[in-house]
Design goal:
InterPro entries: SAM-dependent_MTases_sf. The chain is an alpha/beta fold and 264 residues long. It has helices at 19-28, 30-35, 51-61, 76-82, 119-132, 185-188, 196-210, 219-230, 245-248, 257-260; strands spanning 40-44, 68-73, 90-94, 107-111, 138-144, 150-157, 160-168, 252-256.
Length: 264
């Protein structure tokens, strides 16, 4: 067996840490899962505990009852610890960004696995994963806080990155730009003047401040007003499954990758 591609992470994880991303995946890719023949989903880099892989499995089975989920870890000890929790449709395996599974997955969730890499290495990891997914498949790669209250993720397909999503619990931030510390690796160091992601976060903060009076009706109403204002200038997804009030009410905002793609 070839050496897995990647490096061992800290492995920090916990119950419901990835709930926000899972909820988005289940909504956005429900049709993809429904249309796939024998859909396989990979949870890459699940960490020191199998729990978030099990949660993903449980949530996606509500969408597609026969979906199979494989948790992949680069640390043999973590794989060994997870094996007793296997069940029909849920498995664990040793590997990395090369995605060593029996068939091409229709979905890959990879969270908190690229923070320790350089930006160029993150682009390379994206390219390798993209080469291993089903032609119609997708990758959701992102970062979240320790308890999952702040998160962001990029959705990619075989052609490249497609969207960026910012997501936060309404009690989890003081202003939208607080999410900057959880940007994906390909963007986190681009939050500087002159870069599109910096301009987006700046405009979110300005709209957030302008709509402070909405706080009297709750933080959710302030967020909705903020997103609607920013959508006048930025191509914020405004229709299901990526956008619209139902998603905004969850503390989310999704925007085409082209709008925030870093200057290279």
């Amino acid at each position: 067996m070839k050496r897995p591609v990647g490096s061992i992470t800290r492995g920090t994880t916990g119950h419901n840490r990835l709930r926000r991303a899972d909820r988005w995946i289940a909504a956005v890719y429900a049709r993809l899962l429904a249309a796939a023949r024998r859909p396989l989903v990979v949870d890459l880099g699940y960490g020191a505990s199998h729990v978030t892989t099990l949660e993903l499995f449980t949530r996606l089975r509500r969408v597609r009852p026969d979906v199979e989920v494989t948790g992949i870890e680069i640390d043999p000890a973590r794989v060994a610890a997870a094996l007793p929790f296997q069940r029909p449709g849920l498995s664990f395996a040793l590997g990395g960004f090369e995605l060593p599974v029996e068939r091409r997955p229709v979905l890959v969730r990879a969270f908190n696995v690229l923070r320790q890499y350089g930006e160029e290495e993150a682009w390379q990891a994206w390219a390798l994963m993209r080469s291993r997914i089903d032609p119609a498949g997708a990758i959701v790669e992102g970062t979240c806080s320790e308890i999952g209250h702040r998160a962001s993720w990029v959705a990619l397909d075989a052609s490249g990155p497609r969207t960026l999503t910012l997501s936060a619990r309404f009690t989890g931030f003081g202003r939208p730009s607080d999410l900057a510390e959880r940007l994906p690796k390909t963007l986190i160091h681009r939050n500087v003047p002159g870069e599109p992601i910096h301009a987006l976060l700046r405009d979110l903060d300005r709209a957030w401040a302008a709509h402070a009076p909405y706080s009297a009706y709750g933080v959710r109403q302030r967020w909705l007003a903020t997103v609607q204002t920013v959508a006048e200038k930025w191509p914020v997804a405004a229709h299901p499954p990526l956008g619209g009030r139902a998603r905004w009410r969850q503390g989310e905002l999704t925007i085409p990758w082209a709008a925030v793609s870093p200057s290279r």
